[in-house]
Amino acid sequence: MIIHSAEFTVSNSNVALCPVTNLPEYAFIGRSNVGKSSLINALTNHKNLAKTSSTPGKTQLINHFLINKEWYITDLPGYGYAKVSKGIKAGWEKMISDFLIKRQNLLYTFVLVDSRHAPQKIDIEFINWLGESQIPFCIVFTKIDKLKKREAIKNIADYRAALLEYWEELPFNFVTSAEKKEGLNEILDFIENSNLVYKP
Ligand code: GTP
Ligand code: MG
Fold first, then answer.
1. Which of 10, 103, 110, 188 is the most buried (most CB within 10 A)?
2. Nearest atom, ligand 1, residue 53 CA
3. Which ligand is closest in space to the CA of residue 30?
């Protein structure tokens, strides 16, 4: 898919205030600092569409971007950010879970996991929650440029094995680098095909 336009629409903290639309939507979620906003910029070929930062906790709201005037990307805050109070954390978690459960036009959620790390409990728990909540999702391994090929293959296999302890079948997965622009066409093709079969 060719991206002709990508525009920021609105930020808010409540699913009830998100744009009213029938257009298909894809959310990007994952631990703080995993590379959600960077991946959105790489996919849309815009340097600063979504705000990125080397310090975790940058994205704190639900951010909507309209792509090709045909579909939406949502950039969500990361989960598992340690440096905020319990109350704020609980508020973010409620904002995210409400959004994922209630957003009617949300077709898929892309769950990003850092390919450098061994399977993390918080990611597995989140993925299992998506499954229990019947929220359709894919897994996206990020920052693959930071690993040697052999390490990447091992880490991804370890991740899949950890998930297979809970799941009989694994969802679709993508291996990406926002930095080196790898794995982007695969995600865009997936979105293009999903848009084609979407019936609001
Ligand atoms: P929060 O909004 O804080 O939850 O973070 P985020 O998941 O949106 O991460 P963000 O895109 O802001 O990136 C965090 C850091 O990781 C930044 O310093 C990015 O430059 C870096 N980063 C993101 N993607 C990649 C990648 O593919 N390769 C490398 N080497 N660095 C990356
Ligand atoms: Mg972000």
1. 110
2. 12
3. 1
Residue ranges in the chain whose pLDDT is less than 50: none
In three-state secondary structure terms, 146 is helix
75-120: pLDDT as tens digits: 998 887 767 778 877 888 889 999 999 999 999 999 999 999 999 9
pTM above 0.70? yes
Interior angle at CA 88, CA 87 and CA 94, nearest 5: 90
Residue 59 CA: nearest ligand 1 atom is: 2
Which fold does the domain 6-197 belong to in CATH? Rossmann fold (3.40.50)
Cβ of 34 closer than 6 Å to ligand 1, yes or no, is: yes
Tokens encoding 36? 């959600």
Q: Is the CB of 152 under 6 A from ligand 1?
A: no
